Amino acid sequence: LRKNYEVIILKLGGSLLTDKNKAFSIRENVIENSINQIINYKKPLILIHGGGSFGHPLAKKYEISKGLNTSIENQVLGLSVTHEAMNKLNSLLINKFLEKKIPVIPFQPSSIFFKNYEKISTPPIGIIETALDIELLPILYGDIIFDAKGSFSIISGDKIIFELCKNLQRYKVSKVIFAIEKDGIFIRSNNKEEGNLKLVSEISYNELDNLKLANLGSKIDVTGGIRGKIDIIKRICKKNIPVQIINGMKEDFIMKALKSKDVI
Ligand code: IP8
Fold first, then answer.
1. What residue's CA is closest to ligand 1, atom 1?
2. pTM, full prediction
């Protein structure tokens, strides 16, 4: 059995894979290009993807992240439909890998993770480690999550990453890469609301709390947007795991980040 193997966790953001403003739209070229870069990386990798225009509009419509609410018409059906939309996006990706004869395996997060009064309980994730052992690429995604108090909400891809960082045992996460549709995190260079925007090239853990985030306009996001992402990044960094944010729209940035080459 493999022990102390390094693994990279890569997240393809939902707004990278889809046009978040248009329901069920996918960015065919971006997906194709991302997959081509990923299959070039021959070392252990776990792939996570977000919801984009598949998961977020439905989750918002049925207020899934706020939990069971009997006054919302057909909410439980909406829960099912939200999960299925994510499954669809996932199957689409899975099939693209299979067309290229790359062994991949999807894991349904809603069948792995369970919320217990705000705490996510994760059973031993040996299944993911065994997939890695036999060189299957595990793919997980933002999904619905059931709650022990008889309710449900959404588990974001980012949250899943944190749970994996916390719970993998035989594999050590060497870094987490977020491929998004922008160059990274932008801050305001002065205190005014619309000060000049500046891309942050490097941030240390201690600086994460005081970022003056630039407002780049918000898309439908039920899992906390960039603030939520920074919160998760902090928790990942606290485990001494470096995090990199890259622009997944650029031709070879995913490959460069995976191979630790210089990238913006
Ligand atoms: O895009 C959200 O995952 P994320 C998944 O990683 C759903 O935040 C179902 C909205």
1. 50
2. 0.95
